[in-house]
Amino acid sequence: MITRALTAKLRQLGASFPVVTLTGPRQSGKSTLVRQVFDTLPYASLEDPDVRELALTDPRRFLAAYPQGAVLDEVQRVPSLFSYLQSIVDQQPTATALTAPYVLTGSQNFLLLHAITQTLAGRTAVLRLLPLSYAELSAAGQLPATLAALLLQGGYPRLTQVPLAPADFYPSYIQTYLERDVRLLQNVSDLSTFTRFVRLCAGRIGSPLNLSSLASDCGVAVNTAKAWLSVLEASYVVYLLPPHHQNFSKRLIKSPKLYFYDTGVACSLLGLRTAGQVETHYLWGSLFENLVVTEILKHYDAQGQVAPLYFWQDKTGREVDLLLETPGGELLALEVKAGYTLSPDYFRQLSYWRQLSGTAAERAFVVYAGEQQRTTEQGTYLPLKDLASILTSILDAS
Length: 398
Fold this sequence. Notes:
Blueprint: H1 7-14, E1 19-23, H2 30-37, E2 43-45, H3 49-57, H4 59-64, E3 70-73, H5 81-91, E4 102-106, H6 109-119, E5 124-128, H7 134-139, H8 147-153, H9 158-161, H10 166-185, H11 191-202, H12 211-218, H13 222-234, E6 238-241, E7 257-260, H14 263-269, H15 275-279, H16 284-301, E8 309-313, E9 319-325, E10 331-337, H17 348-357, E11 364-368, E12 374-375, E13 380-383, H18 387-396
Parallel strand pairs: 1-4, 1-5, 2-3, 3-4, 10-11, 11-13
Antiparallel strand pairs: 6-7, 8-9, 9-10, 12-13
Helix pairs in contact: 8-14, 10-14, 11-12, 12-13, 16-18
């Protein structure tokens, strides 16, 4: 079993809060992790029809079976439980002898967090578990042989546990889980059109979101496209990276950029079945950029923090792929390049940004697909394998 970077933070917060909530996409490893960390607690899955029926019809009886707490999986399936949990927590304001009295997991962010804000605000710690990161796979010695193979495989734990090809796993995953979540979150009458919408999203990875264009290409209304995109966000399929708020230039792109939480899902939606197809695809650079974005998100998630991550782009085409805000308010500028060879041209956009914003070269990085880290007068070439160390140094300084 691969050790998850979130383990330490999960234990720490479990010792301080009466309720711990873990969110994340389906099959990202939530159930496995909480059952491992809180192995003394009983377990109940609200996906089980019998268990769910009891929780729905007689919630007091259901919770009475777990007077010393429990792991409640996919708890958003029974929203009424949250009010009863609130009552139990308020009657016992201090932590019991258990590591964490109630551990909740859920894969639908909107439903789960809405219920929490209504009933358990201030009573629960909320953490997120995304699929396996590059750093976690590397530490376990389970990195695929090539970068293209890593992009194709993505980070879902099942692909590291059994001999299963991504081309066999992802189509079933997308159909089974995405379509089910869609039915729960949004009344979509035409699933084939929705699937086409998701595929069109995959073709726009790393691009500023243009809802009008997306809706037009899919043949749906803009409001429909907006609602569907919200479903994809709530199901941890797509991630919208916001533009930076500071006006270093008056003519800025104000739309977010579109990414996927997992490159394996994106590759499958693009119809890519082999690493060779990934490496020669026109979105090779965008997929690598997507990987870097999710690596940063996962690193901050493991510390129980939200990544202060943005991008900057003006209407003349000048851009910086990623801006990362440090605890002291400084900005790190990261340009992402999928090349393996060092090239001074990689710093072209960063040089413009540094001049415009007054950013020092020490805070400018090119994250690239090669192996060598090198510091220059323009900034630092940073291999993907060294990204985690830079992020750790930022968090350690907070």
